[in-house]
# Entry
Amino acid sequence: MMRRYDPLPYGHPTIGEICPACRRAFAVGDEVTLIVVGPGDDEEAQERAREGRPYNAVCVPVHWACATGDKT
# Structure
């Protein structure tokens, strides 16, 4: 289940970055979620992932509407 984060506040570091799903910049007030990409290049995280154990994953933010289709 994805988490719906609170609207982005002024000054958030994600503001101005580009959503990989729609190619629009994140703006103040946008609701986002994080999409898990995987363990990245961290060898320990890769090993834990292969073993089915918890690991710290690389994630990317996307607009909530892009990830879910929910525009409310």
Remarks:
- Strands lie at 32-38, 58-63.
- The chain has two helices and two strands.
